[in-house]
Amino acid sequence: MSNASLKSIMAKSCPVCGSGALEELVEGQIVCRECGLVTGLKIKGDMSCQTKKVRKLYQVSNNTSAIFINDYFSEWQRLLHVSDSTQRNAAIVLYHITKIIGDLNLPLSVLDKCVELYEALAVRHHFKGKRFRAISAAIVYASCKIKGVPCSLREIAKVSDEDPSKVFHCYSYVVETLELPQTHGCVDEFLNRLCKTMKIDALTLDIARKLMKNITQKIVSTGKNPYGYLAAIIYIASIITGKKRTQRELAEITRTTEATIRKRSKELIGGLQLVISM
Fold it and tell me: What is the pTM of this model?
């Protein structure tokens, strides 16, 4: 590392782009979250071979996810020592993906899909202008939806320490770039989880599921936060069964706003042609 670079790092700024968004990924290794510069890193090797090696590593692993993730981290700590920008970016993105997978204890099938999506994006060189944390979180979210693993965008954004709106923007970008199919399974599972958390009675849950069947495609394709629609569905179902849950309660559980729930409820009532007094 040059003296100029060393002084810049000591001053907590990137020697290339001047950003103060520096982070220590592994001991002694500092990365700029904006431009991707990693100080003092040097390794040779084709990235596709490295991802294949990682895939083989976890395909033959019979240990628990927690133990395996530790092995995976060790592998990426070695691969982080790269000098080529393409290899370096790959190592950083896959490092963040691995961290998210480990923090949320997601199944290894999601990790496998993450690697596949990353490789597909890397072939197209579609990473310019994208934050590493946001694109990594977006890939994990897309993989969860494809595999039918219930994990909200908000949960993934939280563990990745990234703004949910930026993660969703990157997710939309990934879906559009790779032409990924829209899936319904996760939305249904989110509804079940919300109802279980709120201890919704069986009749209200049944009504909510029936309402869901009519608007699932709308929730998936609209690009808006699904929790606003899910809260509205539970709200409408509770009114129908006479066991009304308040908008405030739903807003707190789903981390949306009462205004959003009212807006989504009116939208759904109009679309389903229901006659309900709110």
Answer: 0.54
